[in-house]
Write a structure and sequence with these properties.
Layout lengths: L8 E6 H14 L5 E3 L1 H4 L13 H5 L6 E2 L3 E7 L2 E4 L1 E12 L20 E14 L1 H4 L21 E2 L2 E3 L2 E14 L2 E11 L5 H21 L3 E2 H4 L2 E4 L3 E7 L10 E3 L2 E9 L1
Parallel strand pairs: 2-3, 5-8
Antiparallel strand pairs: 1-16, 2-6, 4-5, 6-7, 7-9, 7-10, 10-11, 11-12, 13-14, 14-16, 15-16
């Protein structure tokens, strides 16, 4: 059966192309993949992983990191105390059905199911750990530079720390739908390799699932208006392109043969 038996136009993207684009973006927009507090971002010796960038990033002095506020120390409020941290996405691969780029862990019930995609990514990061000498700088009795005024927020003290780095190998599976005019990815399952105890693993997996879902919905949802269009035809009629209905197309979008496929109908 031809790709256009139930539609007028057909478009697809191969997993190799998607992975190549991800790698290009990672090198050209490193701040989308690396997050840290200002103290750690400014010191290369504290990074958990080396960042590979294009020459333009250095030439135009683009940021390597998205800068985030320090993580507060619970119970410390006079003055408030914060520590640095870092999180880096060091690898990201997508695999469309039938799944041949990497092997899924047993917890995700391999092989990859029809009409699904899989993700393999590595997250490296660490929380800042202060030395005993640094901890001795915390004022005894709980004093603050602006405590006497009782006005405004108290100034946060950020301890000088060094992150204790670790890396996590994460796998996820999901599927695509067309919703409210967007091509949208959904996470079905997620698994972190070799994490104990089970409660810690479940917490981390839930957090990472929320992160991936947020990125899929906010950053990677593709508006179908970008893939479809209407245009005049010699001032006689207007040609309109839109996603083909499902059915008669068996799956639209379709994830198969290492590709993400879209079927489009044309009306005049």
């Amino acid at each position: 059966m031809a790709f256009t038996d139930n539609c007028e136009l057909f478009a697809s993207v191969h997993e190799d192309g998607v992975n190549r684009v991800i790698n290009h973006i990672r090198r050209q927009r490193p701040s989308w993949f690396n997050y840290a507090t200002a103290d750690i971002a400014s010191n290369r010796e504290l990074w958990c992983s080396k960042i590979d960038v294009t020459s333009d990033v250095v030439k135009y002095k683009n940021s390597f990191f998205t800068i985030l506020p320090p993580l507060p120390i619970l119970g410390a409020d006079s003055p408030p105390i914060g520590i640095g941290f870092i999180a880096q996405l060091t690898k990201a691969l997508i695999d469309f059905h039938p799944g041949n780029k990497f092997s899924l862990p047993p917890q995700l019930s391999p092989p990859l199911q029809p009409q699904h995609f899989a993700l393999d990514f590595q997250v490296c990061g660490g929380l800042g750990c202060a030395s005993e000498k640094e901890l001795e700088q915390i004022p005894i009795g709980g004093t603050s530079p602006n405590a006497a005024t009782f006005e405004g927020p108290k100034t946060q003290v950020v301890l000088r720390t060094q992150p204790i780095c670790f890396c996590l190998e994460v796998f996820a599976t999901g599927h695509f739908t067309l919703e409210n005019g967007f091509l949208l990815g959904h996470v079905d399952g997620i698994e972190i390799v070799d994490i104990t105890p089970d409660g810690l693993e479940s917490n981390l997996e839930c957090y990472l699932k929320m992160c991936v879902t947020a990125v899929l919905r906010e950053k990677l949802a593709i508006q179908m208006e970008k893939l479809t269009l209407s245009f005049p035809l010699f001032d006689i009629a207007t040609v309109t392109l839109s996603p083909s209905p499902n059915p008669p197309v068996p799956n639209n979008p379709a994830v198969e043969e290492d590709q993400l496929k879209i079927f489009i109908k044309m009306t005049v």
